[in-house]
Amino acid sequence: MEYLTIKEVSEKWGLGSRIVTLHCSEGRINGATKKGNLWLIPKDAPKPDDRRRRKSHISGEVTDEVFEKDNFKLKDHTQSSFVSSFKSLNVNEALLLRIIEFFPYPIHVYSPDGMMVLTNEACLRVMHIPSKDHIVGKFNVLKDPVIDKWGEEVRAQIERSFQGEVVHFQNLNMPIRGIIDRFETGELCFDSCYQNIICYPIYDDQNRLVYVVHVFVTSRLYDGKEEMVKAKEYIENHWLEEFDIDELVSVVNLSRYHFTRLFKKHTGMTPYGYYQDVKIRKIKEKLCDKNLSVTQAFESCGVDYNGNYSKIFKVKVGMTPSQYRAFIT
């Protein structure tokens, strides 16, 4: 069977590559298979139906009928107040709330005093929170003791977001136990989680701060036996260094033999194999940077392009580094 790439299918169907990728991940393209991080689509696969909402023929806006059907009309003063801040942008209120609700990443919307006024389904799902009533109007991020576990610098940055600054956090280790106790979920969502967080202010037409929005994107997530979680975290945090099994087993406090056997049992690969996967993933990220040559992309990851990792890359990805660079550009 002949297969096409995401890029080729995008051109064939007249769709964006992200839309085609989404169709693949949702299983809406018959025969689509994933090889490594790449999707392969049968050449004769039919184009999926368009699931987007139809627009009104009169105004060009999404009609209220659609949102009544989906039970997503404005329900309270808090939501109405929030969307009113976007009037100057001519954004349809129900559409704006729908975007927030079904956005794939957790979103927290706070009033200037730190009280949560709006969140979305992704937040409830990730944190295992029973309902929005559990936290909206009850949780104040500026009074949250969990933040103190990150230290004074992080708290100071979060507070600056409520003073009108845009703040970014990269790979922030979430205090899972504190979050569970805070939201009283009674269960462990995951063993370890790292988040990229962006905090940005929203002003009204008189340049007054009316809301602060926090968006969370998971960068790393670990779930499983405690020793395995520690091992994965260590490898993820030290991928640029040479692999050192002795240092790794000292972190998890297990014998070399027992740790290797246990790691393979829980992950399906050896510790060094996991390290190689992390390394290859980092190389792929660097290859996306057009300002770097293929050789420089490898060097920035601590390996030689002319060395063994070029062969490892081809085995794991299914194409050479140069072919991968040409495919993604």
- Terminal residue distance: 25 Å
Runs in which pLDDT lies below 50 for 5 or more consecutive residues are: 51-78
Helix content: 40-55%
Order of helices and strands: EHHEEHHHEEHHEHEEHHHHHHH
In what order do the strands lie side by side in the largest sheet?
5-4-8-7-6
How does this structure look, described?
The chain is globular, with a radius of gyration of 23 Å. A hairpin with a 2-residue loop joins strand 2 and strand 3. Helix 9 (226-237) packs across helix 10. 19% of the residues are buried. The chain has helices at residues 6-13, 17-25, 64-69, 77-84, 93-102, 121-127, 152-161, 176-183, 226-237, 245-252, 256-267, 271-287, 294-300, 309-317, 321-328; strands at 3-4, 33-35, 38-42, 107-110, 116-119, 167-173, 192-203, 209-222. The chain is α+β, with helices and mostly antiparallel strands. It has a five-stranded antiparallel β-sheet, sandwiched between helices. Strands 1-3-2 form a three-stranded antiparallel β-sheet.
